[in-house]
Amino acid sequence: MTTPSPDEQSQAIGGDPVFEHHGVDPLADVAPRDEVRRRACEAHLTAFLGDDFTVLTEKLSTGIHLDIYVFRPTEKIPYVTLVTAGMSDRPMSLPPGSEGGAHLELLLGVPVGWPGIDPLDGDLLDDPSNFWPIKLLKDLARIPSAYDSFLGWGHTVVDDEGTLFAPGVRFAGAIVGPPVGYPPSIMRAITPHGEVDYLAVLPTTPEEMDFKVATPDGGDALIDRLLQARVTAALDPGRASVVSGPPPWSVHVLMKSRHAHLGDVLAPLMPNRAALLAEKQSTDAVIPAGEKENVRWRVAGPIKPAQLSKDAGNSPLRDQVRAAVLEHRGVVTLAPEHPGDGGQVTAVMAMVAMLAEQSEVAAIWLPHQQHVTTAEQFTADIKNEVRLTYRVHPATAPEGTTAVITRGLAAIGGREVLLTDSGMTHDELAKRVRTGLNRMPGEPDVVPAAGQPAKYGLTKYELRESVDPVTQEPVLEMAEAKQKRGLFRRKG
To answer: Suppressor of fused-like domain: from which residue to which, for each copy (predicted)?
Structure first.
């Protein structure tokens, strides 16, 4: 088809919010539109998506002039495809050693018949519940130019301000990855002004975002899960999460400085190994911690404060922790190479303690425990032999009762322990849970199981299979054990 001029398009689409100006400076420095690259990219896209398309072009822009191509379905691509144009006009600021190119565009498929998009209707696009796929693409496409940064394979964006999606949409963020469902060759366009990469924006569920944050090499790990579940670049708002249960067991050490590789981190701890990692510029490595225990280390940039805010707010040291979270500049993540029961995480805790004592650590975050603490408190807990495989938090309870629940046991293969009572405070219940689990038979790091006894003072408890009455989560209920009555024979 012949692409209409920007003025014709604006008139045709009318009040489409994609053309609206949202509080940005219309006189801001906008990168010049590279028409040579754009026409070459357009020819590249039509070879795969057909020539039945419309271009939604911005009336007012900031940073880059960002348009959206809307390709109609074809026999080979049975959904509408949205593709950015203009993100590649300004090269991204790539760190040394990056594998991706400096010029990137993003795409996303939407089902046939999506209101306002198929067919295009500006009035329907005034509704955020219809417009959000376009807004999602535009918001992500502007990140590199707005923050002098870059996006690439495995990068995620968290919806920490609740603005990426429309109200009621269950996604919590998005990951940049392969455009599954499209020909692989669409991923790179060769133009007279250099190569342009095309990657997909894949909306992600809250569980998937937790998995990505808690897992070393989390972006690649999540993409692997999405590929295994055959999630395509075509949007499915109702799709199931590709991960279930709690995030994997890991510890995030929030550092006061950002490190380019693990050699910098390990220099004061393991000089010889650090030299090898520095030579290779390694950001990920498996380090032996014992005869059969290996710990995976990964260094990365800072974690967004919004991802930590809830857990930091629950900390007894919340003021110190919140300040530490804001000041951290990088993260070192440690996890067992092969997560298992509580006994397999002791090596990780020992290495975290070593790092906390000898490096500039701002705070320590255990996402599976919903717990953030200071380096000093973590070290003190280790010295005082506090059990670190779980934490106890207040839980939502039916009216008239108080409840607490552990967090962390599910991540090492067990179930969380729930205790409810109508006459005690959260602190009193938490103390009972900790004391009862500490006095269970077996080694200190054994994962609790149904049928095991627990004791607090003269009160005996038993762990029983149950379900949290509020969340319906499978749990072990810490229930008072029934006293067995003895049989007495009367003399005479």
So the answer is: 64-239
Contact 479, 460 (CB under 8 A): no
pTM: predicted TM-score of the whole model, two decimal places = 0.70
DSSP state of 411: G
Distances from the Cα of 1 to the Cα of 42, 49, 53, angstroms: 12, 12, 7
pLDDT tens-digit readout, 80-115: 999 999 999 999 988 776 677 899 999 999 999 999
Q: Diameter of the chain by CA atoms?
A: 111
Q: Is the separation of the CB atoms in 283 and 296 below 8 Å?
A: no
- Alpha helices, DSSP H, located in 1-127: 6-13, 35-49, 122-125
Domains in the chain: boundaries: 6-228, 251-383, 391-480
- Among residues 103, 102, 99, 98, which one has the least CA distance to residue 37? 103
Rounded CA gap, 252 and 303, in Å?
Answer: 9
Please return the burial class of 160, using the count of CB atoms within 10 Å of its CB with bins 0-12, 13-18 and 19+. middle
User: How far apart, in Å, are the Cα atoms of 338 and each of 249, 284, 345?
Assistant: 10, 15, 10
Residues 208 and 246: beta-carbon distance below 8 Å: no
